[in-house]
Amino acid sequence: MKINAFFIDADDTLYPNNSGLWNEIRSRIFQFVADKLGVSNERARELTGGYMRQYGATYRGLLANYPQIAEEYFRVIHDIDLSKYLKPDPELKQVLNSFPVKKFILTNADAGHAKRVLDALGIQDCFDGVIDIHDLEPSCKPNKEAFEIAMRIAEVNDPKTCVFVDDLVQNVKSAAEFGMFSILFGEKNADVTECVRIENWRELPALLGANDYER
Hints:
Blueprint: E1 2-3, E2 5-8, H1 21-37, H2 41-55, H3 58-65, H4 67-70, H5 73-77, H6 90-97, E3 102-106, H7 111-121, E4 129-131, H8 144-154, E5 162-166, H9 169-178, E6 181-185, E7 196-198, H10 204-208, E8 212-213
């Protein structure tokens, strides 16, 4: 197949899900919701779970229901020293650079966090840009509109020429239904027939093989 662009998630995709970083982010999300809404941590978990199911992202749910606090959300949950969890990954950089096409981060986080992750991993120059949740307004992954917006930003027209990599089953299923070649990263126990799965980035070159790459 012809490949014109990669769209790659950031958290728990560019780095292994056992790094501990997402655990801290998730804890900060629950604490933020509990503190701002004056509810228990258990209730905060229930609310964020509901927002994920209904809106695709906690931020979208907060923006819809509590816009007065949503603007603080990313600043608080991403106020983390990434060096505690991430370090430069030369192997990942080599794999990414082996594909001579456009590459974009596609994230439901904000661009500032995604760029800090890229910096921490030493792969910031591997990407043509970051497409974040603000760019996807009013949508986000896994909604089809998010992929349509991402393609417009990347200036590609055919989803069948796009590769999408993410760690969440609902996101890769949606991207596959949209027409992208979708890859689930790291989820060992997922029963997914709509896409393929890799556990390490070094598997990607063999998986994609000698495709036709076009910038």
